[in-house]
Amino acid sequence: MEWVAIAEEYIGKFGWGARGRNLGISRMFGEGDKSSLSRNKLAVALRPRGLLSGFLAIVPGGSVVYIPPIAAKVPPMRLRLRVSAELCEGGAVFSAYVTRDSPRRIVLEDVLVWRGESVWHTKPFSERWNTILGEFVGQHFRSDPVLQGFEVELAQYVAPSAVLEEPDEKTVLEFVLEAPGSKRLIRIPPRSAPVAPPPVPAEQGFTARKEAGMGPDVYAVYKGETRLGLALVRTLAISKALRLAMTPGLTSVPIHAEHNKTFDKYEVLGVSNV
Length: 274
What we know:
Blueprint: H1 2-13, E1 26-28, H2 34-39, E2 42-48, E3 54-58, E4 64-67, E5 77-79, E6 82-83, H3 85-90, E7 92-98, E8 105-114, H4 119-122, H5 125-140, E9 141-142, H6 145-148, E10 151-154, E11 157-158, E12 171-177, E13 184-187, E14 206-210, E15 219-223, E16 226-232, H7 236-245, E17 253-260, E18 265-271
């Protein structure tokens, strides 16, 4: 596909993409960045987790191409945008990502190259965003979803004071510094740990006891003092609950269990809170 090679060469001429020096405008947030955030004017963007930024290139005299990041493992896309003849002649490169919803949307995040000038390296973010993006939307671009087959949107930025708490685990925070040539800092909230099932009341006096000499996770089910056979433990959550409950010095743990006809064993369904 010649149009892909031409777009990659154009982007690479300004130092971006696989043929340039930088693969993207972002990097992961580190502990050492906290002081930088406190010293610099910045904006904050919220975007869906798992969507990586690529490049939307308006190649001079050629086509409009979206080059996805390598990690996305999806092919480049040739797009149909209504842009002015002036911009088609001068060319531009935007940082952008594509959503997975329907209809799909291309979200523009920043301007890297504008009419042959590498503005990401020379102009502050507020000028790139307010002035250049404003000029693009107001003078050089006409939205036509029917022709495009997708929506074109602008990313949403807020002041740091508007972000009062960590976003949910499906959302990523991006800190965008005002200074030219500053990579945005990505902060990914940790995924919440799986919640263990709540303890269930003991029924009919079932208890679990470790089977001596048969490994750390082998238990027998008792009703009172009557041994009913080896316990059926089918999930890691139940296994973990038994190990946590069987503290040093305990010989048995009250459990909720029922007979499993398929395996002909008593299956442990939970650890009792009694």
